[in-house]
Amino acid sequence: MALGSSAAVVMELMTMGYQSAAYLGELLRSASPATAGEQQELAAEILRCCDRVIAKLSRGATGATTGKKRKAADAAAAAATSSSLPVTPTKRRARGAEAEREVRSGTTADGFIWRKYGQKDINGCKHPRLYYRCAFRGQGCLATRRVQQSQDDPAAFVIAYYGEHTCGGDAATAAAAAACRDGELMPPAVINSGGASNFTVAWNMGSHEPASLAVEQRSCDGDAPSETSQGWSPSFSSEVELDVAGFEVAGADEPWANSSPVWEFLNGSFDWESVINSL
DNA sequence: AGAATTTGACCATT
DNA sequence: AATGGTCAAATTCT
């Protein structure tokens, strides 16, 4: 395959992330099999994200037009994406249409850049439902997601994804590449150590005083979509929030604190080469 | 000023 | 008619 150098870098980093998440899942399972459920689910989600990027890269950018199954209305709209003007012949998703993927996670961050376009109170649900679309819709990306805070566990989100990221070959990967250029990593998944779920939601109206910190990605060069015509000119500030309160590496009392691949990973001495070669 | 979110209206689907 | 998804004007944020 003919991967560009930046794509190769992203591929390598995503492979690292994949291996890290896999190993983290192992650690969580062996460390505390009883309480590792939620944490393992987070690790699993990281795995899924990495897996998707890797699949995309190894498949090449030609996968953009090879959208698998898209709803009829969306397909019709996609046919007209050559004219960058999304005149939008009113493509409305059927109520309760099944998502292509549904993820239950402790964070709403998934590495993509989303723009919120609506919010709705749902009949029996305590929390509102939030609607997002890909920030690169101006480029023809029709990916959409629906985020809902779980009724029982306020620290969990149920995220339903619709549509494929047709921007994946350039936009999301470009953002990743830009982040790598700047020596930064992709927005990490939420770190929520221990059983105490002190992760709070920012959009909880009224009282949003979470112990969270915002992470922002910087834009890459000029391919940041500047489409003022439709009011769609997203920047690269995503709404990533992560709780750092419970994440103290230095003072960790965990048994693996100072002598494990995790620690090696954190202080930068982890032997990635052997990991990659073992693929 | 421009960008991003909020929020009520609008409309398709059930 | 009720419900859920989207639009777009208004508002807030940077």
Automatic annotation (TrEMBL):
Taxonomic superkingdom: Eukaryota
Keyword flag Transcription regulation: yes
Pfam family, one: WRKY
UniProt-annotated location(s): Nucleus
PROSITE patterns, A to Z: WRKY (PS50811)
Name by which UniProt lists this protein: WRKY domain-containing protein
GO cellular component, one term: nucleus
Keyword vocabulary terms for this entry: DNA-binding, Nucleus, Transcription, Transcription regulation
Domain WRKY: 103-165
InterPro entries in UniProt: WRKY_dom, WRKY_dom_sf, WRKY_plant
Annotated spans, Disordered: 80-103
Alphabetized Gene3D superfamilies for the sequence: WRKY domain
GO terms for MF: DNA-binding transcription factor activity; sequence-specific DNA binding
